[in-house]
Amino acid sequence: MEANEKLYYDTNEVAEMVGCEPSALRFWEKKFPQLNPKRDSRNRRRYTERDIEVIRKIMHQKDKQGRTIKGAREQLRRKEDSQLLIQRLLRVRKFLTEIQEKL
């Protein structure tokens, strides 16, 4: 099975993929509600592609943009809020378009 076909990655695999320490991943899990890896039957963390994407965003905020943990957490929250708002607006637009077509 190729790497891009995997559904879950363990902590060491993810740390190697993104270039950080496993302890940083465990720390960020506590600080960022967006980062919530699943646990297997042996209570080991299992990261999805979505989790890895969040980790990369955290690292970008910290390393490239020089944000603190608090600043990075706030930035990610704002981005999520704006994406939800965009999705809602698109649904409203679709609904209004359907109404207009029926008139």
Automatic annotation (TrEMBL):
Species: Dyadobacter luteus
Transmembrane residue ranges: none
Residue span, HTH merR-type domain: 8-78
Protein name: MerR family transcriptional regulator
DNA-binding recorded as keyword: yes
Keyword hit for Protein biosynthesis: no
Alphabetically ordered keywords of this record: DNA-binding
GO terms assigned for molecular function: DNA binding; DNA-binding transcription factor activity
Gene3D superfamilies: 1.10.1660.10
PROSITE patterns: HTH_MERR_2
